[in-house]
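Quick illustration for those who missed Monday's session on complexes.
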Amino acid sequence: MTIIDGKKVSEEIQNEIAAEVQKIKSAGKKIPHLAAILVGNDGASETYVGGKVKACEKVGFVSTLVRMPDITSEKELLDKIAELNNDKDIDGFIVQLPLPKHINEQKVTEAIDPKKDVDGFHPANVGRMALNLPTYLPATPYGIIQLLERYKIETAGKNCVVIGRSHIVGLPMSILMVRNSNPGNCTVTITHSKTKNLKELCLQADIIIAALGKAEFLTADHVKQGAVIIDVGITRVKSDKTKTGWKLLGDVKYDEVAPKCSFITPVPGGVGPMTITSLMMNTLKACRREIY
Ligand code: NAP
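Prediction with NAP bound:
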């Protein structure tokens, strides 16, 4: 059984990006510039955006954090997006989700110029992904693809079960696994909360990608010997064994599932560290105009 080390792969990729930025600097070309809009002061969103700004510093990108108060109107946010769309120095930007309830997230996502949509959430980019055209892939699925690639995990012809169909993880992940590419070429089953025979489906799977957000849901009796397990879930639970008083659990009951697997991602340290790195990869692509 091999534990997939997302922290290590993430560091490797960030070092590769930093080396590219050095080359860009030496050639006197424009340094990649990522902007993030943060509306309100939700604690988790502050942490995620902070991590993105830090990663930019680490790889040598320029970053801009645009803070807007939680009373920001939808129009004010759309105006700010239009401003960033037209700002020639900014290569790509994200609007940190979730947004306050009075703002329509879909409208906001569609207002971002697809050329600068480094989160890969714009319908134009989702469509390009489905058609296997060059695009910005959503960060978490892109990170998983990187892990499969770097660990040389065979996917062609395999049965893959994706648990969860969210627009940011499950659905794009299932599209990427079925595409005619490598990694890809799987026979994919997408499952969700209304799926009736999940255990039977999982037992047929060579690869299971668990993204449902239910701590330790996937137990050993769901998993066939030698399966590849990708655990996307992150649930914070109370713990009297840690200094902080809490710990993170994945969607997979790691201790009992790991001995049956060929490969498995741990939580923390598996998929999680890859997400921000994927955003850095997309920003580099935006700066190089690799997609549009
Ligand atoms: P989400 O929007 O809540 O979607 C969960 C999906 O799981 C839904 O499609 C839901 O089905 C399905 N589901 C719920 N219960 C199920 C069950 N018993 N059996 C089968 N399917 C079930 O969550 P998300 O945003 O995709 O995130 C999923 C997890 O990944 C969360 O723990 C989140 O924190 C984590 N996450 C991690 C990263 C990372 O960087 N590692 C990034 C993003 C998310 P319905 O559609 O029928 O409701």
